Structures are given as structure tokens and as C-alpha cells.
Amino acid sequence: MKKQIDILHIEDNDVDVAMILHELNKYWPQINHHRVEQISELKEALEKKWDVILSDFSLPEFDGLSALRMVRENEIDTPFIVVSGRVEEDIAASMMRLGANDYVMKDNLKRLSPAIEREMKTAKEREEAGIKFSGTIKYASVLVKPDIDLTQQSNHTNNIIDVLSITDSRIELGPDCIKERHKAVVNILYAANLIRKTQQKILQREDLSEPQFNLLSILRRQSPNAVTLRAVKDELTNKTSDIARMVDKMVKGGLVSYSVNPEDKRARDISITPQGLEALAEIDKVADEMFLCDALLSQEQSQQINLCLQNVLTLMREN
């Protein structure tokens, strides 16, 4: 735990400030505390780096929601914790959706220090991992590194969050529940990023790109039969505008071979060669060791993940 903490505090009530600082001093003997009450003061204060931002919800000149928007729209990664009295649940939910890291009631300040410590630790882990976190729905697609193509995953981010935020009328969902659902989306995208990066490293060993690997996998499923170029193109997950050139390169590399289409002498079919099958077998072996080992996931954990993701996909398709 840090001995000193730098806090930006958005609060207009002197008594509440003293009460909060008294609670925090139990954890941090040295606190650099800067208090703002106006939007102009907040704008100036955000030019500096803070360990955490605490904010009341209701202030004379503006509110916590406006403060949160300013912080997140400037893509500031500092943990933002709302410390306020009781508000309507839909307002609290909106704060969490827009990027608040936690919501602590003023009558339950014993939760504040652990919440700050937890969010500071999480922010540090994100920074070390090179992950940008803004918390808001509209920034969800930048949670992964820009050099990794995750278009298919990020295009569905809003849909996933909408599905995960569906409220069951039989259950009272609070901010903590909504936060966990948003965290699930972050973890899905982050895990997809790591898995894809690992897959790319495996493919590099065989000097293959993702589209080439995809093509070989399709041909292996059809082996020993040959397939038309058009049929392969329809099945490719990574669409390429110049599939013929890619196939020509793989033919020269000995991974696939051409044959004459029996129904159209002008057309050519393609099939995987023994060398191509051998390359896939080597990739499968390495991938199995990385992704299918018991140390990564037990069978029970795999079943739980599959069930949860299948439920999400089903709801997304229905919506």
C-alpha cells in the first residue's frame, strides 16, 4: 500500500470532507488532498495526475455526472469513485455505465478505503499490461491494443453490454452488479486479445498468416476432396480481396495444390497437400499445449464459460 495518496476531491460540504479525510487517514497517513467545487476548477485540476478522484453527486454549480463525463471524455484513466448520499438507482446505474469505478454511500465510509486501494491496484495492472480503460460504453473498443485487429469483437461491444445490462424484474440490481457485468465485457475483449496474439505467435513459427491458416483449416476439413476457390472464399472468416494471389503463394510453398475442376475445365480446384497437413498438425500440437492444458482451465470451468458465452450469444441474436 502507498504511504501517500494524491486525491482530487469534488465536494462542496466541509463536514463531509472532514469526515471522509478522517476515514482515509486510517489507511494513508499522508494525503495530498485537493478539493474543487466548480467545473472550471475541475478542468484545471485534471491537468495534473491523481491517484484517485472522489466526487459527490450533487453540487451547487454542477453534478457528479458532469464531472465524470469530463474525466472520461478526456480519456483520463484515474479511478473515479462517487461518494454521496442515497440517490435513485437509475442514476447510480448511469454513473457506473459512464465509467465510475465504484459508488460508496456517505453513511458507509468504511467501504471507501478498500475501494480506493482496489481500484488503484487495478489501474496499475492495466497500465503495466498496456490496456487503456475509460469505462464508458463508447470507449469499450479501445480496451485492446490498436495493433491487434479485433473488429469482429469490438463491433459487438455495445450489444454485449446491452445484453448484460438487461434487468430481471424479479431481482434488484445495484451498481456493484452492473459493474461486474461491464467488467465481464472487458475481460472477454482482453482475453480475446491475448488469445489472438498467442495464436499469431504460433502461426509465425510456421510462417503463416491468419487468412492462410484459415484456408488450410477449411481445406483440411474437405480433405481428401478438392474445393473451388469460390467455396473457400465464402467460408473464410478473414476476408481477403485477393484470395487468388494468396493461394498462388501457398501453392509455391507446397502447402496447397491446384487441380482441374471436372465440371468446368477452365476452373481450378484447390486441396491441401501432405506438407500443409503437417504444418497444421504442428500448430495443433502447440495450441493444445497452450490452450487445452488443465492448468489453464478445468473441464468444469470450461463448461461454465461455454454456458455463459452461449447465453450471451443467444440473447444478442434475439436482440
Protein model, in words:
- By secondary structure, this protein is α/β, with parallel strands linked by helices.
- It folds into 2 domains: 4-194, 3-Layer(aba) Sandwich (Rossmann fold), CATH 3.40.50.2300; 206-291, Orthogonal Bundle (Arc Repressor Mutant, subunit A).
- Helices cover 52% and strands 12% of the residues.
- It has helices spanning 14-24, 39-45, 64-73, 89-97, 112-129, 151-154, 157-164, 175-205, 210-222, 229-235, 243-252, 274-291, 299-318, and strands at residues 4-10, 30-36, 52-55, 80-84, 102-105, 227-228, 256-260, 268-272.
- Helix 1 (14-24) links the parallel strand 1 (4-10) and strand 2 (30-36).
- Helix 4 (89-97) runs parallel beside helix 8 (175-205) and helix 7 packs antiparallel against helix 8 (175-205).
Could you provide a short overview of the structure?
The protein has 319 residues and is of the alpha/beta class.
